[in-house]
Design a protein that fits this description.
With 319 residues, this protein is of the alpha/beta class. The chain has helices spanning 11-22, 34-42, 80-100, 136-149, 171-181, 199-211, 231-241, 253-268, 280-287, 295-300, 309-317, and strands at 2-6, 26-31, 46-49, 66-69, 105-109, 121-124, 155-160, 163-164, 184-186, 193-194, 197-198, 219-223, 229-230, 248-250, 290-292. Helix content is 41%, strand content 18%. The strands form five sheets. The chain has a seven-stranded parallel sheet, sandwiched between helices. A two-stranded parallel sheet has the order 6-15. Helix 1 packs across helix 6 (199-211), helix 5 packs across helix 7 (231-241) and helix 8 runs antiparallel to helix 9.
């Protein structure tokens, strides 16, 4: 099978390209990072340097079986224009390329952040109505979902929660760095739980989505590790494994949110809009439980997460 992967020089895209190549598929990775692209080529994977936010043409292939759109700007903070270019314009260009390649399946990687609310949401299903977006990332990913779902491509949308694993530079490393430098807020006595997803489980879900029946066109699937873990335990265990002791101090949610929104206001009015030390979304993640219902993915994709957090953490921090 010939499969195109956008965001191939990113964390998820790189893992996916190498896994698909290992399965014997012909893989074409698309990405902006030339050095990481060369590393993919060294592993026998075709690569084309392309910025989907600016480009809508492809030189390497004239047809393919599937297109996995994993390219995105994923962050709790940034310029609205940057999110729009990467997540909205980038998705439109990915759809255009996939249409030119006459793919039979387009897999769009989205995020559960599109459904985030400042309240506990346990076993949230894919068909829950989406709230007003919590930030520009969530807003542009929701737009991108709609674009993919309403295109003339045969599309599946995956919403993996909290992807981590070896090579991740965002999720666990960010938490560990925060634990190194400050006492972290303990909100609602640490009641919040969430479900993370090891990158290998996300890759397995994508493979299942590529092979899923054509009749699944337009459907959305939640993906996670299926294990609800207290957020402060995630921070503590990851920090401990990295040789850091995480320290917490009780803080009222209202006070943490007020401080975050004040910090956001100040940052928005500074040159370059630098990321504030804390965001309202970050407070929400620490304060409120967010877990996903995996019923549809288990039943229809045959998805069954294989890597629990203890094993995932071991793999992530292995040298």
């Amino acid at each position: 099978m010939k499969i195109v992967v956008s965001g191939a020089t990113g964390f998820l895209g790189g893992h996916l390209c190498r896994h698909l190549h290992g399965l014997g598929h012909q893989v074409l990775g698309l990405g902006r990072d030339v050095l990481k692209g060369e590393a993919l080529r060294a592993d026998g994977i075709e690569f084309e340097t392309i910025d989907l936010g600016d480009a809508s043409s492809l030189n390497a292939w004239d047809q393919a079986d599937a297109f996995v759109h994993a390219a995105a700007l994923s962050s709790a903070w940034g310029l609205r224009t940057a999110f729009e270019q990467a997540n909205v314009t980038g998705t439109q260009h990915a759809i255009t390329i996939a249409r030119q390649l006459k793919v039979r399946r387009f897999v769009a990687i989205s995020s559960p952040s599109v459904a985030f609310r400042f309240c506990d949401q346990l076993n949230l299903s894919e068909d829950a109505p989406l709230p007003p977006p919590v930030n520009d990332y969530a807003a542009t990913k929701a737009i991108a979902e709609d674009m993919a779902r309403t295109s003339d491509l045969n599309t599946l949308i995956l919403r993996p929660r909290g992807i981590y694993g070896q090579g991740d530079t965002a999720l666990l490393p960010r938490l560990i760095r925060a634990a190194q430098t400050q006492r972290l807020p303990l909100l609602r006595n640490g009641a919040a739980v969430t479900d993370l997803t090891h990158v290998d489980d996300v890759v397995a879900a994508i493979v299942s989505a590529i092979d899923a029946p054509q009749s699944y066109n337009g459907r959305t699937f939640n993906i996670s590790g299926g294990e609800a873990i207290a957020v402060h335990h995630i921070i503590s265990r990851a920090s401990e494994a990295a040789g850091v002791t995480a320290r917490f101090r009780p803080v009222p949610v209202w006070l943490a949110l007020a401080a975050a929104r004040a910090a956001e206001y100040i940052a928005r009015h500074r040159i370059g809009q630098p990321e504030p030390p804390i965001t309202a979304y970050g407070v929400g993640i620490l304060a409120f439980s967010q877990t996903l219902d995996l019923t549809a993915a288990r039943r229809d994709l045959g998805y069954n997460p294989q890597i629990d957090f203890s094993e995932g953490l071991r793999r992530t921090l292995a040298s």
